[in-house]
Amino acid sequence: AAGVIQSPRHLIKEKRETATLKCYPIPRHDTVYWYQQGPGQDPQFLISFYEKMQSDKGSIPDRFSAQQFSDYHSELNMSSLELGDSALYFCASSFGGEGEKLFFGSGTQLSVL
Amino acid sequence: SQKIEQNSEALNIQEGKTATLTCNYTNYSPAYLQWYRQDPGRGPVFLLLIRENEKEKRKERLKVTFDTTLKQSLFHITASQPADSATYLCALGSTAGNTGKLIFGQGTTLQVKP
Known about the structure:
The structure holds 2 protein chains of 2 kinds.
Chain A (H helix, E strand, L loop, with lengths): L4 E3 L2 E4 L5 E6 L6 E7 L6 E7 L2 E5 L6 E5 L5 E5 L8 E8 L8 E2 L3 E5 L1
Parallel strand pairs in A: 2-11
Antiparallel strand pairs in A: 1-3, 3-8, 4-5, 4-9, 5-6, 7-8, 9-10, 9-11
Chain B lengths: L2 E4 L4 E4 L4 E8 L5 E7 L6 E7 L4 E4 L2 E6 L4 E6 L8 E8 L9 E2 L3 E6 L1
Parallel strand pairs in B: 2-11
Antiparallel strand pairs in B: 1-3, 3-8, 4-5, 4-9, 6-7, 7-8, 9-10, 9-11
């Protein structure tokens, strides 16, 4: 069965650079969520989209932005990267916007040097 | 503020025994509670969802209870196997705004020894 696809799998950036993370949800899933997970930490909710509209926002820095496109894929744009942005970024998708039964991708490991 | 607490220490048990993990929460009125499994470097995998009006739910060797009075959920794995070794996360959702925002606990690491 198709799963959530994230790209790239690994990303290395310098401070103050920008990064774009992509997420392709499971077909027919209409909701996408972004989470940030630091080493040994629990996943922190960043932002979610339901039917291409932002549905909720968590602890996402102003330097980050995201959107969901007409084909339901989503991109997380991160600018002015800081060392503290180094983390595993997960995208998840579900059907219906109520946060039930999320399917997670394998994540993008971002390292900011 | 809203808080979710799981067993902070790793849980080590012998193969074949029942593992019981705890999730407690405060300042929260979740419409449902979910349990996920996470292996190192991988995304969480959905296991079970239990709603606020349900007391217990089972799936194969897994059982979840949900006590909204105690604000607690227990997650049981019976006849545990070494392959069950992983970190288990509980997550709370709310009907507020139906936005789907899930708050995760910090997880409990389970180690099943052969």
